[in-house]
Amino acid sequence: MDSTIEINAVLVKRLKNQDATAMDYLYDNYSEALFGIINRIVANQEMAEDTLCEVFLKIWNQIDQYDKTKGTLFTWMYRIARNKAIDKTRSKDYKSSNKSNDINNYVDMFVDNSVDKTDYIGLKEAITALGEECKKLIQLNFFMGYSHAEISKRENLPLGSLKTKIRKCLSNLKIGLNKDFGQ
Amino acid sequence: MDSKEIISEGYLEALITGELDEKTTQEIEAQLKVDNDLRSAYYAIEKKIELLAFRYGIKPSPGAKQQLMENPSIMNLHMTVGEREIGGFSWLSVAASVVTVGSMIISIYFWNQWQTSDKQLSLLKAEKEVIANNYQQANQQLEEVKSDIAVLVSPAFSRLILQGTDNSPDAQAVIYWNKEEQAVLLNSASLTALNENQQYQLWALLDGQPIDAGIFDAQSGQFQMMKDIAAADAFAITIEPKGGSENPTLETMQVYGESS
Lengths: 183, 260
Fold this sequence. Notes:
The complex is a heterodimer of chains A (about 180) and B (about 260). Chain A is mostly helical and about 180 residues long. Chain A is built from nine helices and no strands. Chain B is elongated. In chain B, about 50% of the residues lie in helices and about 20% in strands. Chain B is built from nine helices and eight strands. The termini of chain B are far apart. Chain B has an eight-stranded antiparallel beta sheet with strand order 5-4-7-8-1-2-3-6, with no helix packed on it. Residues about 75-85 of chain B have low confidence and may be disordered. Chain B is of the alpha+beta class and about 260 residues long. The chains are: A mainly alpha (about 180), B alpha+beta (about 260). At the A-B interface, helix 1, helix 2, helix 3, helix 4 and helix 7 of A face helix 2, helix 3, helix 4, helix 5 and helix 6 of B.
């Protein structure tokens, strides 16, 4: 049994009842993960935090549209965060803020020495085993908001082989998934 | 598009980021509902992205939360974050201060809902804890059994049965002895429990001289690790005062066996 799913079912029910304490819980548990996505797309801290707020408001207002047969709660929220952040980078304000997360400024996010993070056993090794190209593709696509088309153009990879490459990279990421997280 | 193609062409990964067009998205989502294998393949990818997002999350500043929770659409009808932390009573009094009867009824309704789901949440959390513990215990037991079996099948360990003496004709103990590594393992399952002032002590006898091989309490279900013994002609177990003795009290000898 995956108790993350069970807890999420209760959480979603509470959110659908517009229960503010559930929102509190949701924020405490998911804000870091979602902000990690947003902030890597929207490089400006203040604008990224505004986006985070918009994302949680959208979650709050549209929770009825979440359908668990279509995927996990996290994926649903992740997609909202990614899209909102991409929208933000296209806004006039953002363009005039001179901040840029240009693909040329790519810095490997998986190199990180923070000690206060929960350690997922074997994760570091699993990521290292992926190799540089896979790490970069996963980061650009899933964490920096770049589309397949954009990556294909910048990295000089045919679109079709890029998609299968990303698929292979993720399936090569051997990490134990029986551990619950997101609590 | 069949499930195989959806997987091999990387559509599931693209579904997560949401960069597929509407028609393809619907097509794949429909397939997810009917194909369990596809669903679990998708779930595995979802969980990987979730795990990475959690591990490589970034903390927003504390102000961001306040900004969110003070938004009217969340604050409306509800307490603010600060008030919740005071506890249920003050929350009730907040509800009481709501002027209209209508909003009070709504508040109580939501409060009940919150209580119920809060309880459910705690129950599920407790349940999860129990399951995790059970799993860990079972895992530990499995590891123990595995290492026990490794001893049983290892040619390096010789098996020696110590038979009961006149003191206790029914008693038996089994020793597994790895002479090379000097390791001595003991199965004491058929020895009776002693009172709390006494303990069993294992002795190795070499050229008529007793060598202390460790004290123990009778135990079933697993091997006990005794002191290292390099050479012995025989092994014996006596009953000694708690903590053991320097020399065996021979008249209390329970079992004895000569090594071949």
